[in-house]
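Table S2 (continued). Query chain:
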Amino acid sequence: MTLVKIKDFYPNYRDELFDGDDIKGADVYADGTDDKIGTVTDVLVDDNSGRFRYFVIDSGFWVFGKKVLLPVGRSRIDEDEERIYAAGLTKEQVENLPAFDDLDRIDYDYEDEVRGVYRPQVAKEPDDVTYDRDSYNYEQEPTLYGINERDHQTLRLYEERLVANKTRSKTGEVAVGKRVETETARVSVPIEKERVVVERTTPADAGRAVTPGEADFREGEIARVEIYEETPDIRKEAFVREEVTIRKEVDRETVDAEETLRREELDLNTQGTSVVDRPRNI
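Corresponding output:
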């Protein structure tokens, strides 16, 4: 059985358990009187179940500033007056209680010394009742550690549930751009060029005398031949090479998680008048 401070077990205990109020700083009075005993400085919680086990009480000037433990079953919370009443606690008992300095001091022997001071206040037990240090648990003494709705109206019972949520976070990005690459291209184009060839030949009847009028003597241009040549016309043109489509795809998967859940249960200690525990919707 390990005890921890309320802040370590319930980090948001003010909102979760006390509607925004703080149990620390609450005044402690002897039950049924206006005799102030001290002030609550902390609450010790069972680390296994989350149940309240002790109020840490600073007795102030009542017993020279001594800090002691008050079992929750021996207390009553008055929400309207913002007080905690200790059932039957006397100055003599506070003097007999071991001082509380730090959690490191608390072991079975320390707690048994605390219980030994309070046990005479509760209902008498058979003389043969003994407690074994190896098997002892708080449920064996509900008069010291039991909590009921009448005396502890602001102590709520809680249970944990798994709540699955999703958060969307950026894990990266892809930037798509273009770059221009260059290369040297060669192309061959066949072209044609015309030229005029003038050939002179000696006819077979060279030296023959011609008849009158056959000879045509004249000056000036007697023939015209046009000459052409091809020149290469090479230029660059842009063509569509390929298309790129950009889109996002969503991959879906199911993530399984497993946690240990805690739940508080109500301990009822009935003496005399019977009590019926009826669940109700709030």
